[in-house]
Structure formats: C-alpha cells, structure tokens
Amino acid sequence: MQSRPRINRWTEARRNLVFGTTMLESLVQPHFVVAGTGVDEPISSMPGIHRQSVDVLLETIEVDVKNGVRAHMLFAVVEDGEKDHRASVASEPSMHGLEAVRRLRERFGNEIVVMTDVCLCTATDHGHCGLLVGEDIDNDATVERLVEIALANAEAGADYIAVSDMMDGRVGAIRTAFEDSGMTDAGILSYSVKFASSFYGPFRDAASSSPTFGDRGSHQMDFRSGYSEAILEAVSDENEGADIIMVKPGLPYLDVVRQVADAVVRPVAVYNVSGEYSMVMNANPERENRRPMVQELLHAFKRAGADIIVTYHAREAAQHGWTH
Ligand code: PBG
Known about the structure:
Largest sheet: 8 strands, parallel, barrel
Distance between the termini: 39 Å
Bound molecules: ligand PBG
Shape: globular
Number of helices: 12
CATH superfamily: Aldolase class I
Radius of gyration: 18 Å
Strand content: 15-25%
Structural class: alpha/beta
CATH class: Alpha Beta
C-alpha cells in the first residue's frame, strides 16, 4: 500500500495537529538535541533557542506541553569526531537523537507528536545531504541510506519521519520499507518543496551542517523555478505516499504554499525557518514588540493554506497566548 490515510488519524495528538482548528494545535516546535547530560547551550544566531541534551530536552518539552505545544521536531546535532562520509551514527540505536525519541515516548506516550528530521548533512563529515561520488551526490545510494535512518527513527517510536534531503524517490522507498517491516502507523512528513535558501544560515550554525565545499543546488529547489516545479515535487511525494507535504522556507514562499495547498489533497505544512526567525528576533529584542509581528506571521501562513506550522516561535507564542 502506498497510501494509508489512517496514519494521520492514529492518535488523538496526530489528529489535533493535522485536523485541529486552532492556531495552537497547528504549531510544531523544533529542537536541537546534543549528546551528554545537563547541556543547555544557547545558539548565538538564534536568540532563545538552545542545544540541549536529552535530559534537559525532556524538561523543556514538559513545559511546552503544559503550554499546549504538543508537536515537536527533533534535530540530532552530531559532534565533528562522530561524523563520517556515510552518516553512520545517524542510524546507531544508541545515538542521542534516537534515545530522545524513546525517552519522549516513555514519558509522554501518545500525548505528543514526535517528528524527527531525517537527512545525512548533520552527520556527514563533508556536510552534504547524500553519499558522494567525487563531488556529486549519488541519489539512489543516498535513498538506501535514508531508508536505514528512517527505519531506525520509526523503530525508536517517532510519529513522523521528516525527510529533508530532497533526493528523488526517497518517500516511496521509505514507504515501502515501512510496509515491509510492518510499520503501518509510521508517518512521512516530506520536505517536498524545499528551496536552496540563504535563510537556513542560522540553522547550519546550530546543527553544524554546512557543506565543506559547494552548495545544495543540485537537489534543493531553485528559487527562480515556477509553480509547476513545486507542484511536480509535491504531487510526486504525495503519490509516493507522503502523509504531510511541506513547503520551506515560509515567508518568501507564501505564494508557493498557496499553490501547493491547492494542488495536493494531503495536509500541508510550512517551515518558518531559522533565518526568518532570527530576523524577527533581532529586529525585536523586546517581547512585547515581537508579539504583533509573530501573530501576523502565523496568520499569514494559515491564510496561505498551511495546516501545520513548524516554527521556532511556537514556544513563546504558546506561553504568552499569542496564538489567536
Ligand atoms: C537538513 C535541514 C536544514 C533545515 C532543516 N533540515 C538545513 C539545510 O537544508 O541546509 C533548515 C531549517 C532552518 O533553517 O530552520 N537538510
């Protein structure tokens, strides 16, 4: 089966995220997870966002949940010494990102939605999103590796695997692997329409995932491309079995969000990325000045057609009641 609509209905927390009608229910908070214990390290390019070890992450999410943020996306940050050319650590069951998923499941059961970003760039020593042949990314070999990482995340208990690599055919391959392993409730959130964007700069600092040479232009989308390219990517991921279709970045591509929302039947997410977040934070160091700007942005995403909003503002918006 390439399509299992029940995946988005599997738990109440998933239903609230995907089909809920309030702004608060639509929000997903991203987190950067590091190895160790007691680590709570501010990220200088992203005011208010920290790299946290699993123990600190659990406490952070506990507070978020009390404030109503139920959906969480994890990025495992890997030390340079742990990286290699094929991102081996990413599928090691003992890796801190996978431990975080297991501990979250133990602590919160199905009260929350856990998403994990699946890509190679945070764990490769060259910083590219795939396996290299010379200086090129080998698409199909990368897809095989992504399948292994996706399976490890689903086994740990993630609700959704968020594939952010932009390789051709990876959604279908992961869907098939889930079917073959009997993982009929594991979802795929595809970064379907992901542009090669200068707005990812602060994230690459936070996750230490910058490529050591070249760029991501051979796989991420060209910002000069028209709507047909976006729709091609979104519809093919949908046909391969993606459960949620995402457009990224958000603000510079609100028109693309609208076009994609009109073209697909699956729920649409938007990623309000690190550079967009940092612009708002740096322009408004005072919380009260940020408030109207964040509210306006969240509604812009909704108006453009997003059902789900992945945003670093989720925590503050929920905590201070900016979600109306
Ligand atoms: C990994 C990945 C990136 C982001 C999410 N997943 C960076 C990139 O593609 O270089 C960016 C998120 C953000 O900027 O907030 N491929």
